[in-house]
Amino acid sequence: MSPVGYHAILKYRLMIPLFPVDAICLVCRKACLDSFGEHVIHCKELPGFKYRHVMVRDVLFDICRRAGISAKKEALVNFLTDPSDGRSTLRPAGVLVFGWVGGKHACVDLTRISPLVGLSSRGFTAGQAALKAASSKVTKHEKTCIENQHVFIPFAFDTFGFLAPEAVELLSRVQRVMHNNVMTPRSTDMVFKRIGFAIQKGLAA
């Protein structure tokens, strides 16, 4: 990570203003480019919006591959969709892990969210946004996956690096497999470090 990126991510994480004053976003021209940089995380018009999601997905896939786990990224499963949108919106699984649970393939859906979304006067609770995002994904996709003999795993994380329990469970198991198959001193905590760094590097970019 470059020094500029590292400074930017430190400021964002510590909630130190990144910009001198609030202003209109120069890219989308629709929202306020707040001094803390929160809009930058969500602006879909920025070139790096999808890159951040793709980076974490690619790192997760690479970790599985190095651990000897059979997986495929952006796998077309022909049933994963939003029930309210209909069959015309079929989408691939972010990462499809073959034979992961009881011989069934697991559809891993990566979801990134800011922990400051929906923040109210009741105060801040670490991880609440990621937990809500994971629950929403389960409601949307789990039933369809089960009906098609698959398992659904929401991989929800927030921009501060919090991982939802399902993501922690998946990575913990991958880490155990890597330890058994690869057996290198670096593999003991490499899985979580790589995912955490990918999240922050994507934000810095």
How would you describe what is shown here?
The protein has helices at residues 3-13, 38-42, 49-67, 128-147, 165-181, 190-204, and strands spanning 23-24, 32-33, 71-75, 93-101, 104-113, 150-158. The protein starts with a helix and ends with a helix. It folds into 2 domains: 1-46, no CATH class; 47-204, no CATH class. Helix 1 (3-13) packs across helix 6, helix 3 runs parallel beside helix 5 and helix 3 (49-67) runs antiparallel to helix 6. The protein is α+β, with helices and mostly antiparallel strands and 205 residues long. Strands 3-4-5-6 form a 4-stranded mixed sheet. Strands 1-2 form a two-stranded antiparallel sheet. The protein is globular. The protein is 42% helix and 18% strand. This is Reverse transcriptase domain-containing protein. It comes from Tanacetum coccineum.
Search tags:
205 residues; alpha+beta; two-stranded antiparallel ribbon; 42% helix; globular
Cα-based radius of gyration, to the nearest Å:
18 Å
Percent strand: 15-25%
Strand order of the largest sheet: 3-4-5-6
What multimeric state do the chains show? single chain
What is the average per-residue confidence, as pLDDT, rounded to a whole number? Answer: 85
Report the biggest beta sheet as strand number plus sense, adding barrel if it closes. Answer: 4 strands, mixed
- Fraction in helix: 40-55%
Low-confidence stretches: none
What is the 3D form?
A: globular
- Ends apart, CA distance between termini: 9 Å
Number of helices: 6
What's the count of strands?
6
Based on secondary structure, the structural category is alpha+beta
Give the total of domains. 2
Could you spell the SSE succession in H and E letters? HEEHHEEEHEHH
